[in-house]
């Protein structure tokens, strides 16, 4: 059995955000407008013009219009 300290270090979840240079390149696939990056409660990209929210899963933006959520 691993020591308590080793278990604590491996159980930590590291949250990594989208790279700023990638965020600057991304646009809404529907209207080609700018996106707002949100990190709470879940990381997402928001298009205010289309009123769509694109999820970010494992640091990969899901930029499919059919999978975006309306707000």
Description:
With 71 residues, the chain is α+β, with helices and mostly antiparallel strands. It has one domain (13-70): N-terminal domain of TfIIb. The chain has helices spanning 4-11, 20-25; strands at 36-38, 44-47, 52-57, 60-61, 69-70. Strands 1, 2, 3, 4 and 5 form a five-stranded antiparallel β-sheet that branches. The termini are far apart.
Short description:
With 71 residues, this protein is an alpha+beta fold. The chain contains two helices and five strands; from the N terminus they run ααβββββ.
Record keyword descriptors for this entry.
alpha+beta, five-stranded antiparallel beta sheet, globular, 2 helices, 71 residues, N-terminal domain of TfIIb
SSE arrangement:
Blueprint: H1 4-11, H2 20-25, E1 36-38, E2 44-47, E3 52-57, E4 60-61, E5 69-70
Antiparallel strand pairs: 1-2, 2-3, 3-4, 3-5
The total of beta strands comes to 5
Termini separation comes to 48 Å
Strand content: 15-25%
Number of domains: 1
- Coarse shape: globular
């Amino acid at each position: 059995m691993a020591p308590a300290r080793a278990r604590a270090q491996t159980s930590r979840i590291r949250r990594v955000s989208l790279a700023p240079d990638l965020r600057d390149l991304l646009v809404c696939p529907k209207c080609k407008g700018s996106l707002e990056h949100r990190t709470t409660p879940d990381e997402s990209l928001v298009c205010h013009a289309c009123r769509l929210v694109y999820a970010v899963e494992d640091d990969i933006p899901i930029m499919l219009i059919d999978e975006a959520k309306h707000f």
